[in-house]
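Aim 2, interim progress. The first record below pairs a target sequence with its C-alpha cells.
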Amino acid sequence: MFPQLARFTDLGLLFLRLMVGLVFVTSSYSHLKDPQARARSIEMSKSFTIFLGAGELAGGLGVAFGVLTQLAAIGLIYFLIVVNFQSWSDPFVIITALPAALAGIVWMLFATMRRDCMESSVANFC
C-alpha cells in the first residue's frame, strides 16, 4: 500500500514487540507490588496472583528482549485465558485445540476447492 514505508518494517516490529513487553511487565508489577490487594481485585488466591505476576514478568521480558518470543507469547496468552476463565484446564484445552481447528479449516478449503469464502478471506488463507 505504501512501498516507501517498507524500509521501516523491522523498526516498526521492534517497537511493537517492546510495547507489548512493556504492557505485560507493568501488569506484572501490579501483581507483585501488592499481591493481596490484587488477588482480591481479580478474585483469585494470593499465591496464584504471585505466580501470575512472575509468569507475566518472564513472558513480558521474553517478548521485549526477543528471547524465546513465540514460547513467551503462548505463555502470556495462556495466562490471560486463565485469568479470564478462572481455570487452569480450560485454557489448556483451548490452546491445544487451535492447531486442529486451523488444520480443519485448511483441509475443508482444499476439499471444497473454495478460495473466495468470507472465513478464509478474514483469516488470510486465500
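The second target in this work package is listed in the same format:
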Amino acid sequence: MKADGSFTYRNKKGEEISREEAARLGEDRSYKQVGFSKLKTGWKVSTVWLGGMDISMKLNGEPQIFETMVFKANGNDGHDYDCRRYATEEEALAGHAAMVTKWSDPLRDALYRLGDREDTYE
C-alpha cells in the first residue's frame, strides 16, 4: 500500500505493474496458483499469487503478494483454518511445503479437531 492509501500491484517477480496487467494475469489460473495439495488428513492447502495487490497494509516492509490458506477438503464451510502471507514466490513455495507438513501430522490433526487450537505442535 502506498502512503496515499492506494494499492500497488506486483507480478510474481515483485516488479510493479499496472492494475490492468494485474487483472489480466489474475485471470490466468496457471499463473495465479503457486501450489495446491489435498491431504490425507482431510485438509486442502492452497497457495496463490494474490492478483498482485500488496495486502501487507504496511507503509514499510516487503509487499505481501502471496498467500497460503488451509481449508477442509470435503466441502467449504466458509472458514480458513490457517493462513500465511509471503513477499516472494520462493517464500510462498517453502511456506506451502511447511503448511503441508504441519497439516499432514495425524496427531496435530486429531488434537485440532478435538478443540486444541494452539500452534504448539510445530
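The helical segments are 19-26, 29-32, 89-104, 106-113. This observation will shape the mutagenesis plan for the next reporting period.
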